[in-house]
Amino acid sequence: MSEQEKTVKLTTASGRPYYEHENSLTAGPRGPVLLEDYILHEKLAHFNRERIPERVVHAKGSGAYGTFTVTHDITKYTKAKLFSEIGKETRVFLRFSTVGGEKGSADSERDPRGFALKFYTEDGNWDLVGNNTPVFFIKDPKKFPDFIHTQKRDPYTNCKSATMVWDFWSLNPESLHQVLILMSDRGTPYSYRHMHGFGSHTFSFINKNNERHFVKFHFKTLQGIKNFVDAEATAMKGLDPDQAQRDLVEAIDRGDFPRWAVKVQIMTEEEATNYKWNPFDVTKVWSQKDFPLIDVGVLELNENPDNYFAHVEQAAFAPAHIVDGISFSPDKMLQGRILGYPDAQRYRLGANYEQIPVNRCPFATNNYQRDGAMRVDGNGGKAPNYFPNSFSNVQPDPIYKEPAQNLGNVVADWYDRNGENENDHYTQPGDLFRLMTPEEKKNTISNIVGAMKGIDGPKRLEIINRQLCHFFRADIALGLGVAQGLGVDISAYSDTLHAN
Hints:
Number of helices: 15
Mean pLDDT: 93
Order of helices and strands: HHEEEEHHHEEEHHEHEHEHEEHHHHH
Helix content: 25-40%
Number of strands: 12
Largest sheet: 10 strands, antiparallel
Distance between the termini: 84 Å
Number of domains: 3
Low-confidence stretches: none
Strand content: 15-25%
CATH superfamily of the largest domain: Catalase core domain
Radius of gyration: 30 Å
């Protein structure tokens, strides 16, 4: 095969091969460019749209794929399938990041480091979105925008402001724990490989008996802790602002795969009630003397993404993404992030961001979400986009129902909206019908019949009969009138008629 035969043809985004990639179509060799040159339009228009909004926080980051391998049995605490047996491997994607700087900021800034993990499990994707610190600056999500504003640029000077930063911290003493960590040498890690990671928040484990334990996640670097001192970090900003990114890529490329020992702390619900500190306060840690670290497994990064934008920049993490056997806690900051993070991703990447390959669950996903920009998965075909319905076999599975959570004087649960004393759907509609004049009743029945005659398809009689039962329960005359108008044999409703 000749070199020419091996060549891959250059095409437009729609697939048309073309030749003139470098020269614009002009009126004569020195003439103006013609509007007809749509290749020029496509190149410039796409170029203008190559940048997506950068993350508000954690804008600059690095990422890689790898595996999580279970080494110890924790099934007495959780039924999550990724922990189901020793030796089980789960593919992961891990994104490291700085927090306060822009996408072009230096890797060696004094800043917390993001440690965001996506586990691709058979029960869906689990996102554990943490930092390289076990605590955070604030403990209520209402304070988050104010705090982040102090880490960004002054609205007058457009420069970073130590005044804003320390003003906020001095007015919020809850920040002191995290401030001390940040101001230590751990505020300037040597590389992403040489730092610990933490889930930071308190989460829940739920076991096969539907028993709840609270849990904190720890990732202990097996490369050892290594930090810059302040002068070294400052020098590295000028020498190589991308030092941590470069270090991670080169380490994986040469087969020096970074690894972390995965451990958890476990607390019972009773212990949480009686602990000396609020166990759901993210500005506090759980003493490892009181709640020792329990070995779980090993995390290894062993695959660099082949394209940074496709994988790292488009990676989207949200604490809202949990799996069966893992749940939340009353941690206020976690509750706020459950809302804030997926909302940020929808703004940044669009409503269908979970269809992007790095974010897509590699196993089955079934739901009633439809439409939106960049919907690329067939959009559910002709299947209905509402629930409940009479056509689809996509149903909620009760085995995944979580246990209720006792919050002291109230129980948080998914209460049946039609439970006891909430399930009379017929008395008031029946009273309304009986208040109508004979002419109003006649017109109402006629309008209903006219609307229901539009029901068609193989489920027509099933839908009509189900709705007629509701009309009969509200008022027998209403049900009889609609049934007669539709030509339905009312003998099938004898039980309902007798009940009324």
